[in-house]
Amino acid sequence: MQIAQHLLVLLHLIGFAALLGGLLVQVRAKEPEVNASMLNGSFTLLLTGLALVTVEELGTDQVNYVKITIKLLLMAVIVVLVAKNRKFATIPRGLWGLIGGLTIANAVVAVLWQ
């Protein structure tokens, strides 16, 4: 069970790297877009996060449901924003910043909330 959890954490980190990398590659772009890396990374984060919660439920550790709920809500907003705006050639710089800010906020909640 611990190996499965470690593999899920690895996939979760890869999803975060894909989402954040897809955002950061466009820092200097005049017209940012929702690229495939952002789309795949956001779905990977959502699915592996849900799988990690399931594995935690099966274990003996206590699950912090408030933290998980906040992370799930942040991730759901990110997935909706990315999926809905994938069809457009460009997105406003403010939307790009919002997706980036929510991604960083999700990581901050994960790391700093004990």
Summary tags:
mainly alpha; 4 helices
What does it look like?
- The protein has 114 residues and is mainly α.
- It has one domain (2-112).
- The chain has 4 helices and no strands.
- It has helices at residues 2-24, 36-58, 65-85, 93-112.
- Helix 3 (65-85) packs antiparallel against helix 4.
- The longest helix has 23 residues, at 2-24.
- It is elongated and about 50 Å long.
Q: How would you summarize the topology of this molecule?
A:
Layout: H1 2-24, H2 36-58, H3 65-85, H4 93-112
Please give the alpha-carbon distance between the first and last residues. 22 Å
Helix content: over 70%
Structural class: mainly alpha
**What's the main sheet like?**
none
Number of helices: 4
Order of helices and strands: HHHH
Average of per-residue pLDDT values: 95
Work out the radius of gyration. 15 Å
Number of strands: 0
Shape, per Cα inertia axes = elongated
Q: Count structural domains.
A: 1
Low-confidence parts: none
Percent of sequence in beta strands:
under 5%
Short précis:
By secondary structure, this protein is an all-alpha fold. Helix content is 76%, strand content 0%.
